[in-house]
Specification:
Blueprint (H helix, E strand, L loop, with lengths): L21 E5 L21 H11 L10 H20 L5 H9 L5 H6 L2 E5 L15 H12 L2
Helix pairs in contact: 1-2, 2-3
């Protein structure tokens, strides 16, 4: 089986260099183009699984690093293979799709190999008055202690 060897450990440390991971921030926005229409032979429509796969990539944190048209062109070529795999049951294409999406960091091992980690930003919720610590008693006590000196 072809591959690049084992993925590096996330906490692996060399004496001369610490590993640096790129943080991919999940921002919730959609990047890249829609799947183009009219590119499949005989007027076929994209397979529903391929449509969902494409939308998952567009909204993924990895998409924030796909800044140029060639990145999306390469993923579109992969989508054509993915479509053929699902439409015609050509599971022998699965290994090619796996190798291609690994370049974008599809799995945790792929991201570890690329030294990339996904960071999810927690949503800020409305705070309740009971969640806020009232600082005035502490300020008053501090003032009293400082004035006694």
């Amino acid at each position: 089986m072809a591959g690049n060897g084992p993925a590096p450990q996330k906490d692996a440390i060399r004496r001369n260099k610490k590993p640096e991971f790129t943080q991919l921030i999940e921002d919730g926005s959609v990047h890249g183009p829609d799947l183009p229409e009219g590119v499949l032979p005989d007027g076929q429509q994209w397979h529903p699984v391929t449509r969902q796969w494409w939308e998952n990539w567009r909204s993924s944190p990895q998409a924030t690093r796909m800044l140029s048209a060639p990145d999306w062109d390469y993923l579109l070529d992969t989508a054509l293979i993915h479509h053929n795999m699902w439409m015609n049951g050509r599971w022998d294409f699965a290994s090619e799709v796996r190798l291609r999406v690994a370049k974008f960091g599809a799995t945790p091992d792929d991201r570890n190999r690329l030294r990339a980690e996904i960071v999810t930003v927690p949503e800020v919720s409305e705070g309740l008055d009971t969640d806020v610590i009232q600082m005035s008693p502490y300020k008053n006590r501090r003032g009293r202690l400082l004035s006694e000196e």
